[in-house]
Amino acid sequence: MSIPMNDDDLCISLINLFEHLFPNLSIISGADEPYYKAPIANTKARIFFKENYPRSLLHEIAHYCLAGQKRRKLDDYGYWYTECGRTNEEQQLFQLVEARPQGLEKAMCKAIGIHFSPSFDDFSSRPISELFLKDLEVHYQEMITNPPPAAKIALEALLLTDFAIATKRRIIT
To answer: Residue 109's Cα: distance from chain center in Å?
Structure first.
């Protein structure tokens, strides 16, 4: 019988796993906001995620797995981030670029037995978009049936790693 992991242990295990799978990547916890720092000269790329928050780490790894070589050379993969208070157009653009990474994040969460909920990243009290949820589900199905190469590597490793068993016994909220 395995002992359930707490979030700190899970984050450490995930960091170790992903840094092994992607040796040109360093993963750093404790950021105020998640961020991807592209490699410069002889440095590794760096992913920063919110401390003690496995979902933040999985979300950032999903972006990394889906980014092509060109985007991996750009800070935050060349995307922008608009704070809360987005216009309807800005929110629709956010949804277009977020559905696919969240589809992979959902597949990774399920692989290790932690709860997934979509992030609309909008605190304006607008309801979550049904179109966004449908797109997310389409991308989730893609990730579990025919993921791109880096996503496949990550998902297979999550499914085969011992901590996947330990997290399935956690109380998921």
So the answer is: 9
Q: What are phi and psi of 42, to 5 degrees?
A: -105, 25
* Beta-sheet pairing, 45-49 with 25-29: parallel
Task: Convert the pLDDT of each residue in 146-165 to its tens digit.
Answer: 999 999 999 999 998 865 55
Strands 35-37 and 25-29 come out as unpaired
pTM: 0.89
pLDDT bucket at 81, cuts 50 / 70 / 90: low
Q: How far apart are CA 90 and CA 79, in angstroms?
A: 13
Helices 88-112 and 149-160: crossing angle, nearest 10°? 40
Bridge pairing between strands 35-37 and 45-49: antiparallel
Calpha distance 120→141 (Å, rounded) = 19
Burial (CB < 10 A; 0-12, 13-18, 19+), residue 108, is: buried
